[in-house]
Automatic annotation (TrEMBL):
<feature type="domain" description="Myb-like">
    <location>
        <begin position="16"/>
        <end position="68"/>
    </location>
</feature>
<feature type="domain" description="Myb-like">
    <location>
        <begin position="69"/>
        <end position="119"/>
    </location>
</feature>
<dbReference type="GO" id="GO:0003700">
    <property type="term" value="F:DNA-binding transcription factor activity"/>
</dbReference>
<dbReference type="InterPro" id="IPR044676">
    <property type="entry name" value="EOBI/EOBII-like_plant"/>
</dbReference>
<dbReference type="GO" id="GO:0043565">
    <property type="term" value="F:sequence-specific DNA binding"/>
</dbReference>
<feature type="domain" description="HTH myb-type">
    <location>
        <begin position="69"/>
        <end position="123"/>
    </location>
</feature>
<dbReference type="InterPro" id="IPR017930">
    <property type="entry name" value="Myb_dom"/>
</dbReference>
<keyword id="KW-0805">Transcription regulation</keyword>
<keyword id="KW-0677">Repeat</keyword>
<protein>
    <submittedName>
        <fullName>Transcription factor MYB62-like</fullName>
    </submittedName>
</protein>
<dbReference type="GO" id="GO:0005634">
    <property type="term" value="C:nucleus"/>
</dbReference>
<dbReference type="InterPro" id="IPR001005">
    <property type="entry name" value="SANT/Myb"/>
</dbReference>
<dbReference type="Pfam" id="PF00249">
    <property type="entry name" value="Myb_DNA-binding"/>
</dbReference>
<dbReference type="InterPro" id="IPR009057">
    <property type="entry name" value="Homeodomain-like_sf"/>
</dbReference>
<keyword id="KW-0238">DNA-binding</keyword>
<feature type="domain" description="HTH myb-type">
    <location>
        <begin position="16"/>
        <end position="68"/>
    </location>
</feature>
<keyword id="KW-0804">Transcription</keyword>
Amino acid sequence: MSSSRKSSTNSSEDDAKQLRRGPWTLEEDSILIHYIALHGEGLWNLLAKRAGLKRTGKSCRLRWLNYLKPDIKRGNLTLQEQFLILELHSKWGNRWSKIAQHLPGRTDNEIKNYWRTRVQKQARYLKIDANSTAFRNVIRCLWMPRLLQKMEGSSTSSSIMTSENSPVLRSLDLTSQHQALMTVQKVPGQGPGNLSEAVQCLDQKEQNSDSCVSSSESMNNISKISQFAEYQTSPFRMFDNNDYNMLAMDSYYVDNFNNSSCYNMEIINQASTSALGDFAKPVGDCHMAENNWVNDGFADGLWSVGELWELRS
DNA sequence: AAGATCGTCAACCGCCATTAA
DNA sequence: ATTAATGGCGGTTGACGATCT
């Protein structure tokens, strides 16, 4: 090995030894901010050297883009932002950077974290692949309408997100779209619509059309959903009658998807069977799943049990 | 009160595409 | 045409605070 090469190797080793890793200190942040204020961003390796930061260029770039940049928005994602993430993810998949471009002030990292910690969690508890058609349908037919409903309820200026300008909701088949819309539609003089109203409207529509679903089946849907309403007060009540084959939430998905023409029923049935399979076990075996479905899913601002299933009025 | 577990999020890693030399 | 440097992206990890047992 030549001496020059040796020297070069030692030098890079020294550099590597000197490089700092882990959380950034206030001082480092300050140095980076001031340097960029004076010289602008870019050429990150050079920037790191000239600023005297013992960090890689990549690390500096990441710190700036994800944390220090002045227009970074901090705090919880708004309902509108959550809706947008769900919608854009359904279009583009894990293209976090592309999705982030449509949420000013939000970083791809933040969106990715949101997806992994909040959204994928639901998929795990349902034992559905988060990238599966079945889970996408859960998001489109339940989660997104629910967000719309909450947006409608919480703000008078949620104009950016209506079912009319939402491509994803528009892409739903008529029945599912109807269901989604009814869920969020206000009944004049009666405040926000609720799920039972939504289902009733759905039934009416089905009766008026040449739907193959009988009214008794529709009533069955309501009955099943009502059973889920019981579930809200006691996560384990569903299982009190040893009726382990019925979880209203899953039934709701399946029954409504059965009425739909655009879904791959095999996939959905597989998914729901899988989910049911777990729920169908004795309580002791599936404590975690139930507990988390209720507590986590409904507690994160998207699935508020009391608000979502306003069935026992 | 203390240890275990869980959830969040900042940071890192590795791969790929682009660009400049 | 080749190669090295750089930037960008998505996946993963690990620290840390919160909650549970």
